[in-house]
Amino acid sequence: MSIYAAAVTLFLVVDPLGNIPIFLGLLGNVDPARRKAIILREMVIALAILSAFLFFGKYILQGMHISQPALSIGGGVILFLIALRMIFPHHVIPATEGNSTPGAQSAEEPLVVPMAVPLIAGPSTMATLILLATQHPDRIMDWFLALLVAWLCAALVLFSAEGLRRVLGRRGLAAVERLMGMILTTMAVQMLLGGVEMFVENLGIVGL
């Protein structure tokens, strides 16, 4: 997998467009001048957590004796389920500023949970990074670069959340998220097939 493909995969898994309504809901009672600072803080925390999983998560899997084919197949299944959720969303969008109800949101600034974890640094993103690091440990810095690119793109999207919501609207955001889900579906299937291929190779029946 190229750096570009890894960055696109990570960006799709983070799903910043799908997180826009949730972020706006969580920050509905926060001073508008503080919102970008909070988003930046939470994004930096998420980046630190994801970097730790990229560099050290593979040792956890090695200790659990999880094979590369199993990890690849499991990662493909996880990504496929995420893609289905993006194509057929069923979550409830929280109230945003302007239509919120009293007591619907906390007046305190969110810290780490739920913005950094699990909305940005969620289990699926962690699993994807561990999969990349385990399959090609010699390219760990390539995957870190891909993580930085995906993180930067996601941060730009979330910084522009208010503007995107006004331009695209709820239906527009949902349509773009479904398109991203379709792209992620093909990547998930490719990852799953790669795991099956590795499993077949380990059995010594590649020619079948």
Automatic annotation (TrEMBL):
Keywords: Cell membrane, Membrane, Transmembrane, Transmembrane helix
TM stretches of this protein: 43-61, 73-92, 112-133, 140-159, 179-200
CC annotations in GO: plasma membrane
Pfam families found in the cross-reference section: MarC (PF01914)
Membrane topology: Multi-pass membrane protein
Chief localisation class: membrane
Localization in the cell: Cell membrane
Stated family: Belongs to the UPF0056 (MarC) family.
Name of this chain's protein: UPF0056 membrane protein
